[in-house]
Amino acid sequence: MKLTINPNVVNEGNQMEILQLEADEMEMIVRCNNCGKPTKYGMTRMCSGFVGCDNKIKVDGKEIECYFDDLMPRVRKCKESSDKKLYELYRSGKVYRWRDGADGGINDYEKEVSNG
Ligand SMILES: [Zn+2]
């Protein structure tokens, strides 16, 4: 059975996979929804229900931080967008790179838009 933890009780879809159980919840190893890499639950960061971490990820050849450089700018962009489809991604919480990227999330949508 796949174990999950839900840091945002309002949004069921924000569950993160638990990779390693520990007696201390903060020490548990979870898979970050945004970068897909393992991180300590106690080291995750959350704002407005969107959870990321401090892992470094490579995007377009540049090394950036999961939460501050990747997730948060995308969340802000969707939240402030007048494009209904982007705003809906924000409302439904489908803005994660790793979890939603291959699932009709923003990455696919942005490709769709740039391809016309
Ligand atoms: Zn992450």
Task: Tell me about this structure.
The protein has 116 residues and is α+β, with helices and mostly antiparallel strands. It has one domain. 32% of the residues lie in helices and 23% in strands. It has four helices and eight strands. The protein has helices spanning 66-79, 84-92, 97-101, 106-114; strands at residues 4-5, 16-20, 29-31, 38-40, 45-47, 50-52, 56-59, 62-65. Helix 1 crosses helix 2. The model has no long low-confidence stretch (mean pLDDT 84). The structure holds zinc ion (ZN). Zinc ion binds next to loops.
Short description:
It contains 4 helices and 8 strands; from the N terminus they run ββββββββαααα.
Mean pLDDT: 84
The spatial strand order of the largest sheet comes to 1-2-3-4
Strand content: 15-25%
Helix run count? 4
Structural features:
23% strand, two-stranded antiparallel ribbon, four-stranded antiparallel sheet, 116 residues, binds zinc ion, alpha+beta, globular, 4 helices, 8 strands
Which SSEs are present, and which pair or pack?
Blueprint: E1 4-5, E2 16-20, E3 29-31, E4 38-40, E5 45-47, E6 50-52, E7 56-59, E8 62-65, H1 66-79, H2 84-92, H3 97-101, H4 106-114
Antiparallel strand pairs: 1-2, 2-3, 3-4, 5-6, 7-8
Helix pairs in contact: 1-2
The chain binds zinc ion.
